[in-house]
Amino acid sequence: MADQMENAAPADRMEDAAPILQLDHVSKRFGGLLAVDDVSFNVAKGEVFALIGPNGAGKTTLFNCITGIFSPTEGRLVFEGRDVAGHKPHDVAELGIARTFQNIRLFGYMSALDNVRVGQHVRMRAKLWDALLKTPKERREELRVTERARELLDFVGIGRHGDSYARNLAYGQQRRLEIARALATEPRLLLLDEPAAGFTPQEKVELMQLVEKILGQGITVFLIEHDMKVVMGASRRIAVLDHGEKIAEGTPDEIRNNRKVIEAYLGKSA
Amino acid sequence: MIRLRNVTRDRNQLVYLILIVGVLLFPVLAGFVSPGDSGNYLLGQAADAGVYVLLAIGLNVVVGFAGLLDLGYAAFFAIGAYTYALLASGQLNSSPLHHAIHLPFWILLFVAVIVAATAGVILGAPTLRLRGDYLAIVTLGFGEIVPKLFLNLSQWTSGVNGVSALDYPSLPIWIEGPWVGSSLSIVRGFSFAFNSMAYYWLMAILVLIVVILVSNLQRSRLGRAWGAVREDELAADAMGINTVTTKLLAFSIGAATSGFAGVFYGSKLSLVSPENFSFVVSVTILVMVVLGGMGNIPGVIVGALAIYYVLFNVLTNLPANAKGIANAVGLGFLNRPAAGGWPGLEQEVQRLNFLIFGLILISIMLLRPQGLLPSRVRKEELEKGVAE
Ligand SMILES: Nc1ncnc2c1ncn2[C@@H]1O[C@H](COP(=O)(O)OP(=O)(O)O)[C@@H](O)[C@H]1O
Ligand SMILES: [Mg+2]
Questions:
Q1: CB A252 within 8 A of CB A231
Q2: Residue of A114, A128, A132 with shortest CB distance to B224
Q3: Complex ipTM above 0.85?
Q4: How many whole angstroms separate alpha carbon A178 and alpha carbon A189?
Q5: Check: CATH 1.10.3470 for B2-387?
Q6: pLDDT per residue over B131-153, tens digit each?
Q7: Does A231 reside within a domain?
Q8: Which of A43, A78, A138, B225 could make an SS bond with A49 (beta carbons 3.0 to 4.6 A apart)?
Q9: Considering the domain boundaries, does residue A103 fall inside one?
Q10: φ and ψ at A29, to 5 degrees?
Q11: What is the reported pTM?
């Protein structure tokens, strides 16, 4: 598997490929705590990029900065050539970055189908008047969106659960639903925050297959993962965060053999 | 799950059917019940109840759909009513303007909708960034300020006396027939003045229009966005929903409905005064929404009708009825004032009216905490809430 990947897209070439996201000396301070400390790296178009690091390293905070939930204290976050630092979350979503949350944040009392349709909101065109009067244009859009939502539920493998409340789905199905909802915003960059947390090894394998499928749709995947094994298999390149600082970046092989990483990460959790 | 959804939907359709049949039959029944005035009093009451139905549907958009607590909703009702009062009466003749304005009712319906919606935006824009509990307090303040404003702008509004002699709606032509107890004829320049039947049908049509429009919204991208904001604002934002605009739309659509109701209210009563829009009105509407079934339009309609009936029929007639019953069952002595300070049963019941109202509310909420006809969501929420 590793060989195959190297043939398809050699890692060193990947780094030079057109970046979809550039982090340029990004810092985020919470009072006295520097949660993200001068971090720079690029995510290339069409790769699976992984961010790893021990708990509290600042990974989620970095995602929150990228998606506009926090404004970075310093630095630039360039998505497709545009600095999105300080943008509103909904503007970032409209520009083409979607995300999932480490602690699942679905709309619990809405159906799975409606959760996905909410994701499509930003790509819909019906105006207030269209909705009030149920114009033919609005009806057509609703039909199209519903059909697409069903496709997305099928795509992530929970097609049979469209009518269930999101909160009534099994844990793994909820994680998949969150991915479907994010895909519904038609992103070009998808951020997954520990998508396999709490999964069995078998479920992890299935999830990584889904990630490959998403990649196949031309969507760049940037994920945070705790499980080193999962990351090593699925990602082309990896950055390692510890105490807010980037301590390493490279191919899975390079990361595996990096002394700093072993000390900071493997040493602690092993 | 699929079954649950269908059950809710079927039940709603049944309720709509019953409501439609009820609205069609009510004029006939009213004529039977009080043939003396061909049921005019009852028809008038039904039209007044319709005002509360409109208000409850509008507040439901804010509270039930978008999950925003608005404690000053009557302010928008006042704004709608005063818009009509000032622009469809002789009032402005005695104002600094010195010129009366008499715009037609039909145009003012739209004007009031726009004025109230604008007021909603003006109040909402700075406040909807606030967290829920702060928003409730700001709207509470707004609800207190607006009637005071109309009270104190007495140059324009005649202050505490209110604006009276408002124009009645009129139609260029109207066809009369056996259904209003006369022979078939065409009336030119037909006026609604003192014609409860005309108001009754006008209200039925207004409610129908509002129900259709609001149901359409509920089943649109905007309706889903409201749900998302209600459930998890941060996640909604991250999924591309502009939460401030979404909440603002809920607020101004709720306000617009209230303004709509205000125009009807002013034209029917032909009198608008500040005391008609107190905090109690806001609370009554909120009670109708919560008790009927937050988020479910037919539930909210039933809630509004039920509370209206209790407030303006059961409770107003209760003192006299209590007296009658006491006499009939041989407890007539209760009706006489007694030495120990007993004022007589009728007086006593009169005094306790609101206590009784409170007890009725509490018992309904204990028996059906999810409301009379809950939305699927509320129902599930409460059941899960108990289970967890
Ligand atoms: N909103 C916040 N306010 C203050 N501190 C925060 C906030 N969010 C995260 N932190 C702190 O920032 C650090 C990094 O957290 P986080 O990004 O969640 O780590 P990770 O996702 O790598 O486990 C932690 O020490 C955490 O307590
Ligand atoms: Mg985290």
A1: yes
A2: A114
A3: yes
A4: 15
A5: yes
A6: 778 888 999 999 999 999 999 99
A7: yes
A8: A43
A9: no
A10: -110, 135
A11: 0.90
